[in-house]
Design brief:
The chain is an alpha+beta fold. The protein is built from four helices and eleven strands; from the N terminus they run H-E-E-E-H-H-E-E-E-E-E-E-E-H-E. The chain has helices at 2-20, 61-69, 73-79, 204-207; strands spanning 22-31, 37-38, 41-46, 83-89, 98-106, 111-119, 124-132, 138-143, 145-147, 183-184, 214-220.
């Protein structure tokens, strides 16, 4: 009888510990650009072991797919072994718009990552990369535009997905003009109106930005 009672007590205490290790967080994302739209936004809570990228180093294939096509699935799969919660806010986030989601994360020493492609661009994305979750209250971060370095920034609609251009998204081909590493995006430039292949070239007057491009607020709920 004593053994059964001790076993039950141990089970209750273990369950309490597990519950105490997580908390709920409200994540709010605002698009601060005048002319760029964010594809569905990926929100991950995770341990210290996961990083979406390191500046100056090549992007993973999963990040390349997100940055060129807006598909969050592969990054979510890549983070799965380190994640407490992986969610995607569906739909496009237009300039000036705000959206929120509630996720579960580690209550102690946890981190979060947010990412979404910017369209219309070749391979530019927003990111909060490996940021500490607040122990209490809330925190705010302004997010830079990052370039995955996996596709030349030709600003050609034939090579840009989304409703504005409807061009090709992810392409596994490697070109000599690809930068080859993740870096802070330098925005749009005046490249003319028509590309050599006849595709429409997008210009800075409508689609350029000045960092920061997004704001994320994370508030601990419990």
């Amino acid at each position: 009888m004593i053994k059964k009672t001790m076993a039950a007590l141990t089970l209750v205490l273990s369950s309490t510990v597990v519950m105490a290790q997580t908390a709920d967080y409200e994540v709010t994302i605002t698009n601060l650009t005048p002319g760029q739209t964010f594809t569905p936004q990926l929100v991950i809570t995770h341990s210290n072991d996961f990083r979406l990228f390191t500046l100056g180093e090549p992007a993973s294939e999963a990040l390349e797919i997100l940055a060129e096509d807006g598909n969050t699935g592969p990054v979510g799969d890549e983070a799965a072994n380190f994640a407490t919660d992986v969610q995607t806010i569906g739909g496009l986030l237009e300039p000036g718009q705000t959206t929120s989601i509630v996720v579960t994360g580690p209550a102690e020493r946890g981190f979060f990552t947010v990412a979404a492609m910017m369209i219309p661009t070749n391979d530019t994305f927003i990111a909060a990369n490996h940021v500490r979750l607040p122990a209490q209250g809330s925190l705010m971060r302004r997010l830079f535009a990052h370039d995955a370095g996996t596709e030349v920034n030709d600003q050609n609609c034939n090579n840009i997905p989304g409703p504005r251009c409807g061009g090709e998204g992810y392409s596994p081909d490697i070109a000599e003009d690809d930068e080859g590493f993740v870096h802070i995006s330098n925005g749009f430039h005046d490249l003319g109106d028509v590309a050599d292949d006849g595709g429409e070239l997008l210009g800075p007057q409508f689609y350029d930005w000045r960092n920061s491009v997004a704001r994320v607020v994370v508030r601990r709920i419990n």
